[in-house]
Amino acid sequence: MSRILVVDDEQHIADGLRFNLEAEGHEVLIATRAAEAIALLIDTGEAVDLVVLDVMLPDGDGFTVATTLRASGVFVPVLMLTARGRPEDVLKGFEAGADDYLSKPFELSILLARIHGLLRRRQWNEAGAPDSGGVGATPGSGDPVPDVYTFSGRTLDFGAMELHARGRSFRLTLMECGLLRHLVRNAGRAVSRRTLLEEVWGLHEETDTRAIDNFIVRLRRYMEESPSSPEFLLTVRGVGYKFVPEGGKQAV
Hints:
With 252 residues, this protein is of the alpha/beta class. The protein has eight helices and 14 strands.
């Protein structure tokens, strides 16, 4: 059984989600305001497995809630609900730390499928990939990625959702884990921004690919000795990015 926090001030939506999620065996908490959600998850440390977060709230917005959670070290999966559904809103949600999104109005079956998908992904990360190849294995294109992967004195622990680099540990979101898994799986090969948007995030429309750039900038801050002169997450001009586990020079 999972514990799910629903943050939505529309009573009929919150009640409907509670009824359907409890019918499937989940425990459901309800918050109707941004401050209430933040207090539950940060101030009181309420343990939940997933947050369903509406963008529009009476005392703020879901973007701010997600950003506050991530800045405070709360990395629970977040499914964001938005009435606008524009690509820029979706990308703003991802930038804030959301792991998935769904536009209102939505079909209940689709929302439940998204919720179950995020719960499975979290359980899979925590349990470790079933096709794990062992610590230190270097995948080739399409090969399985070990759930603990070491390279050049750095460790990606996908189970714990952490990157250990430069003597520090950095917590990763599901979105960041997904992006790194894909790049590691294709180590040494250039991967286009469009491919990353489609295969990692499931965005198939004409979406601004700069969101990928913003994520890469953040991951470089974690991973690289000098983020402005990266060795591992390289830019391939006119294409996208390439992960080089042994380190290399920035593409020109």
